[in-house]
Amino acid sequence: RGGIAMSSLTKEVPRIAVDPMVVAPPSHPTYDLKAVIRLALSEDAGDR
Question: What is the pTM of this model?
C-alpha cells in the first residue's frame, strides 16, 4: 500500500493590519453623479 508523505513544516501566513486607513481625496476632478445622469437623460429626451 502506498502512503501519503506529508511535510511537518507549516507555512505561516503574514498578518495584514486591519487598522482604519485615512483615504486622501483624489487628485483628479470628481463629478456630481446625479447631475451627470440628469444631463444625460435630458439629452436623451431631446432625441424623441
Answer: 0.34
Angstrom CA distances, 15 to 12, 18, 19, 47, stand at: 9, 9, 12, 56
Structure confidence by residue, pLDDT tens digits, 20-44:
888 887 777 777 888 888 988 888 7
User: Which amino acid appears at position 3 of this protein?
Assistant: G
Q: Chain-centre distance of CA 17, in angstroms? A: 17
Spatial separation of the C-alpha atoms in residues 11 and 35, rounded to whole Å: 52
Identify the DSSP state of 6.
-
In this structure, the dihedral spanned by the alpha carbons of residues 4, 5, 9 and 13, taken in order and rounded to 10 degrees, is -40
Which residue is associated with the grid cell 429626451?
A: 45
